[in-house]
Amino acid sequence: MSKPLKQIHLAAHFPGVNNTTVWSDPAAGSHIDFSSFAHFARTAERAKFDFLFLAEGLRLREQGGKIYDLDVVGRPDTFTVLAALAAVTERLGLTGTINSTFNEPYEVARQFASLDHLSDGRAAWNVVTSWDAFTGENFRRGGFLPAEERYARAKNFLTAAQVLFDSWDGGEILADQAAGRFLRDARAGAFRHRDQHFDIHGQFNVPRSPQGRPVIFQAGDSDEGREFAASSADAIFTGHSTLEAGRAFYADVKGRLERYGRRRDQLLVLPAATFVLGDTDADARERAREVRRQQVSGATAIRFLEQLWNRDLSGYDPDGPLPEVDPLVSEERISQGRASDRRFRDPLAVAREWREQAEAEKLSIRELVIARTARQTFVGTAESVATQINDLVQADASDGFILVPHITPGGLDVFADTVVPLLQERGVFRADYEGTTLRDHLGLDPLPARDASARAS
Predict the structure, then answer these.
(1) What is the SS3 string spanning the chain?
(2) pLDDT tens for residues 315-334?
(3) pLDDT at 429 over 80
(4) pTM of the predicted protein model
(5) 251: which of 127, 168, 174, 302 lies 20 to 30 Å off by Cα?
(6) Is the pLDDT of residue 264 over 90?
(7) For residue range 408-426, what is the model confidence (pLDDT) as tens digits?
């Protein structure tokens, strides 16, 4: 008997603090005006996507002591945007990244429970940690947690929030992690939670929401991130979108679920993916090359190289060769507020790799940066892209994709109009929503509104 076809999950990411967005294109719109978010969300809902996803940047990035202004920076508050989108959509899930390092469980739980009510059960929380003291300065907590403790705090944060979500069952849930137990009392909304990071008790003032709690997402490729997702998340974001890398990641994460008493279908693997469509595959490839040149201008290439070299390279020609001087290895970084430190943990080794590629392929600085930061996952005709997506999902390289267009807010429109109908014809993507909540869309087990179950970490 042949294996039944998997249903594909699709979501849309409104890109933010990165150079994916070609803001200089005449078709690009504002990242501040609500009309941009509304257009994007309505397109995703028209295409029957599972959810819209908003990332969050908590501080403007800097390079060389100045605001990094070569790509999109800044974003209105995530909760405010999602609450407003709840009023202009009916079925689309609403997912927001909220940091566990610089917030408190009661505040975040109250905001997400409120969003779940306002949206009739469409809220989701992407739980992330902060990794740099630079961002922490906005909260007077710069570097207050070593890296190895941030996931521990995140897990305790999530457990505390779940206690709050579950407190409206007609009885108090008292969570004592040290004692490894849950106790109950008779007051709805009353709670108590104690662990190494939090010791809170009081009265939660938002009744149980339509989903019971928001859907939980986690983004992270580290071993700690994978383990956190396996123990606590409903879906994990990843950058692994090729067949080989995707299957390896998929097998690894799904293989961790059993030790937490969970089934393989209780955690979805959703890579981020970009796309460029054309009338022919050759046309799409040419468009993709042009998009990459728009995303990586000469100035952008030099700034990106500075992040690896940790030096001022403003005097170098982006159409010329790589610097002969080696990267400067120092605790002091020229770039602040981005993940370059994690990408370039061994800058001398990375620089050697880049030099070898530039010499072998005769690439300029700009050409090399374009090659090393390639973003187009799916390139081709609508038929070709539909095939690529379906093949990867059926091969267990993912459960679906979070699409990141290079033009906002209208860049998703062509995908919705051309690729989605082809996936629907193949029977691997819904023709219409079958449920009302985000848990319904994702095929996750329901959490009844009166279910007071809670899982201790």
Answers:
(1) CCCCCCCCEEEEEECCCCCCCCCCCCCCCCCCCHHHHHHHHHHHHHCCCCEEEECCCCCCCEECCEECCCCCCCCCCHHHHHHHHHCCCCCCEEEEEEECCCCCHHHHHHHHHHHHHHCCCCEEEEEECCCCHHHHHHHCCCCCCCHHHHHHHHHHHHHHHHHHHCCCCCCEEEEECCCCEEEEECCCCEEEEECCCCEEEEECCCCCCCCCCCEEEEECCCHHHHHHHHHHCCEEEECCCCHHHHHHHHHHHHHCCHHHCCCHHHCEEEEEECEEECCCHHHHHHHHHHHHHHHCCHHHHHHHHHHHHCCCCCCCCCCCCCCCCCCCCCCCCCEECCCHHHHCCCHHHHHHHHHHHHHHHCCCHHHHHHHHCCCCCEEECHHHHHHHHHHHHHCCCCCEEEECCCCCCHHHHHHHHHHHHHHHHCCCCCCCCCCCCHHHHHCCCCCCCCCCCCCCC
(2) 999 999 999 999 998 878 88
(3) yes
(4) 0.89
(5) 127
(6) yes
(7) 999 999 999 999 999 999 9
